[in-house]
Structure formats: structure tokens, C-alpha cells
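Sample entry as discussed:
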Amino acid sequence: MKQKFNIIQSTCIPLPLENVDTDQIIPARFLKATTRDERFFGDNLFRDWRYDKQGEPKQDFVFNQPDYSEAPREGVHQILVAGKNFGSGSSREHAAWAIAGYGFRVVISSFFADIHKNNELNNFVLPVVVSEDFLAELFASIKADPQTQVRVDVPQQTVTNLATGRSEHFDLNGYKKYCLMNALDDIDFLLENKDKIEAYESAR
């Protein structure tokens, strides 16, 4: 979903697991779907972790626990805090569709697989890379109080744990930052600069 990014302040859903791959994010069987509907993929985010074979919620999975069961698209928990090496495995863009479709606007981790990181950016999900120490502190704060909020300031490129006041700076490509802050995908950006492109071509 195209939304302008500025300052995002929200409670978080913690997923303190390392090496979460794209097949766990969205199982391969859903790649056969003929829809591009974000809601469909969001409903099946972490499908095999969230539901048993009968389609019943697994109560031990964090998304189904009372403190975190309300989906981000309902206006809460817009930040996913994940363990190191998030989005490894295949390059399927469907994984980013599922994260966006569930309603997450930000994913925080100490390391992202490169292709998945770019897929998130292309689908209006901001991947924020923090130090392992900062990530551990975030998990500890959320465990102590599920209502812990995190502020992600896109213009300043800072992420702050409001429970402790600690902040870190995160890297963000200038072009992608402009696109996120103006709700532009790559095609939108080209159309926005159509006159400049035509003027350049005419002068050649």
C-alpha cells in the first residue's frame, strides 16, 4: 500500500528468531496464486507458524497471543522486530507483499538478506538495520512491556526505543527515502520527472 513515510511511532510485534527465510514468511504454495491482492498474502503471512493443518491458530505463536493478535492494519503494531538475517532464502517478492499486506510498515533487524530488503523497500515497507546490541535491548523492552513503543523518524533516519530513550541512526538510500516520503514507486517517480526526461532527450 502506498503511504507517505514520515515519523512512525507504534507498538511492535517481536519475532526473536534468526534466519527467518522467505518460505517461512510466505510458504511456496501461495506463489501459485493468481491474485496480487495484498490482503490475501497478508492473511497468509507466516501461515505454517500461525495455523495448524486444520486452520486453527497455534496459540504459542506470537501473532496469536493476546498482546499481539490485533493486526497492524487495524492501526497498531505497525513495526515488526525480527532476529538477525531476516528474509534469507529465495528472492520471492511475495514475502514483501505478505508483510505489507498484514499491515507492517517497518521491519527492524540487525541484518536483512539484500534481495528481500530491496523487495520490502519496493513495496513500501521500511527495513531498518540496527546494531545487535540495540536489537537485543528492543526485545528485552518489549518482553518486559508489550506496550513498549518505538519511533522511526524517516527524515532524520533515526530509530528510538521509547522505553529507554536510546536511539540509533539507520542507513537509507536517498532515492528510496524520497520515494517513501512521497509515496512514489519507480513508475510514479519516472512520471513525476517526465518533463525533465523529455527535455533531456530533446537536447541530445
Observations:
- The first helix runs from residue 22 to 25.
- The mean pLDDT is 94.
- DSSP finds nine helices and seven strands in the chain.
- The first strand starts at residue 7 and ends at 15.
